[in-house]
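Exercise 7b. Backbone tokens:
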């Protein structure tokens, strides 16, 4: 039985999955960690890693089995599955240790705060004071604004108070306690508003099977807005960073407070575009995406046309290279499809083609081929190359949920434009069944798609039996329904029939 186990591929093991995701530089660094006696004193693990490294990044060689690796590191010994599993487990733990070091490198403030705390605990007051001055200078002059900045300031104030208390000087630490509280409140406001807004926006995309349970009145939107206004009022006009930070949170909350929404959106966009260099990349990306969520929701309601704004917001995200944070590409399919749609609605077809070609490296490797084919399918449809669009759709091997609906709609429109009306209706029927059976999409999205199906089916009937009175009536219905999916295309086709 052990021999059978030894023949199995190791591609399913955690260590191999981790190694596949490391860069060549990180693969080299991990080997250095394994060679360090501080982290590892098992020479067998070093041998195992060096052999594994030969097959990076695919690890697809058929001979790469547990038995093969065991023989490399233990020549002449009989395969022992239990012992080999132990090797893999130890190697996995060391790789996790390396990942934690990477994260510590990325969060410089966290590392410096931990050092400060250790210096205080060990009564190294002179070293502590020097380090404190250096860190406070860096924090105020080089750190950009985001929620983590205020969390770091809160933790720094705590350490300063702790240090003074240990020196029997707690009285002088009163200011530190106040700073600790105020910075923690700023962090709390940012995180709370972010969570509330995410709960709010999710209802437009996904079905909420369980109601959101909030921890009391403190977390309600009205209470947050009220408290935030009071905090802004009491914040010194000299504290430009805090005022900017608090205004961003305030506008973000107000964007979803009824009639004030559009003004808050405009104010927020102005602040973000004027202060983009003062915000951390993470916070800039977050608030630009929040602007985009507002635009998408208003477009879906049909109240305001936010297509130009959407395009401008996404262009800034791409120009600032915000889809690559900490060296990790992260252009998600939801953003990709909106970028395509909004650029096309702004008649930026050349820009779209450039975007499709230049954004490939921003997409997860396993999804690249499908998403690029989807991009070209959409672009070629708008260039009226319908057969080319269908060719690219046929090359999509797996339809992820966000683009499954798009592909249904795209195929309906292609077959209609090509004059294959029965095929177009057949695809529309498949879409209707998909809508009926899908339990993930929100009611808002479901109703919008149902309206498209209803109006498209009526359009097909008008095509066969034209009546100007009925066409005008249907056109009026479509124009007055703000939530209809692909409303502009339906209006265009009805006007063609009418003329």
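Sequence design result:
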């Amino acid at each position: 039985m052990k021999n059978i186990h030894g023949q199995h591929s190791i591609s399913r093991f955690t260590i191999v999955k981790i190694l596949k995701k490391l860069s060549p530089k990180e693969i080299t660094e991990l080997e250095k960690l394994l060679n360090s006696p501080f982290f590892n004193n098992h020479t067998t693990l070093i041998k195992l890693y060096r052999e594994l490294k030969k097959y990076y990044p695919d690890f697809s060689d058929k001979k790469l089995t547990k038995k093969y690796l065991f023989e490399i590191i233990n020549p002449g010994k009989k395969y022992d599955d239990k012992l080999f599993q132990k090797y893999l487990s130890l190697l996995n733990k060391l790789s996790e240790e390396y990942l934690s070091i990477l994260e510590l490198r990325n969060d410089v403030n966290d590392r410096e705060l931990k050092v400060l705390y250790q210096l205080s605990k060990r009564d190294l007051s002179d070293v502590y004071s020097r380090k404190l001055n250096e860190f406070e200078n860096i924090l105020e002059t080089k750190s950009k604004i985001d929620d983590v900045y205020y969390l770091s300031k809160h933790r720094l104030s705590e350490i300063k108070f702790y240090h003074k208390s240990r020196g029997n000087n707690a009285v002088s630490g009163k200011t530190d306690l106040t700073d600790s509280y105020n910075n923690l409140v700023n962090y709390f406001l940012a995180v709370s508003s972010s969570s509330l807004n995410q709960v709010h926006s999710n209802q437009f995309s996904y079905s909420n099977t369980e109601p959101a349970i909030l921890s009391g009145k403190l977390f309600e939107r009205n209470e947050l807005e009220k408290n935030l206004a009071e905090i802004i009022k009491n914040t010194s006009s000299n504290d430009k960073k805090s005022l900017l930070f608090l205004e961003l949170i305030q506008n973000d909350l107000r964007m979803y407070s009824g009639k004030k929404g559009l003004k808050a959106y405009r104010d927020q966009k102005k602040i973000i575009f004027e202060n983009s260099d003062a915000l951390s990349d993470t916070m800039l990306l977050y608030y630009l995406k929040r602007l985009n969520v507002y635009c998408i929701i208003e477009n879906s309601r049909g109240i305001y046309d936010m297509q130009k704004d959407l395009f401008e917001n996404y262009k800034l995200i791409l120009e600032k290279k915000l889809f690559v944070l900490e060296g990790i590409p992260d252009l998600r399919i939801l953003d990709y499809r909106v970028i395509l749609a909004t650029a096309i609605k702004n008649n930026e077809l050349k820009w779209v083609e450039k975007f499709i070609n230049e954004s490939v490296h921003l997409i997860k490797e396993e999804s690249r081929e499908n998403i690029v084919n989807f991009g070209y399918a959409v672009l070629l449809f708008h260039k009226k190359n319908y057969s080319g669009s269908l060719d690219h759709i046929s090359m999509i091997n797996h339809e992820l949920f966000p683009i499954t609906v798009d592909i249904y709609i795209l195929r309906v429109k292609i077959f209609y434009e090509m004059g294959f009306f029965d095929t177009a209706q057949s695809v529309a029927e498949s879409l209707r069944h998909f809508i009926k059976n899908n339990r993930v999409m929100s009611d808002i999205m479901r109703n919008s798609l149902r309206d498209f199906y209803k109006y498209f089916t009526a359009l097909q009937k008008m095509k066969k039996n034209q009546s100007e009175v009925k066409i005008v009536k249907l056109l009026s219905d479509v124009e007055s329904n703000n939530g209809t999916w692909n409303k502009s295309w339906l209006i265009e086709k009805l006007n063609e029939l009418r003329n």
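Instructor comment: The mean pLDDT is 89. DSSP finds 24 helices and two strands in the chain.
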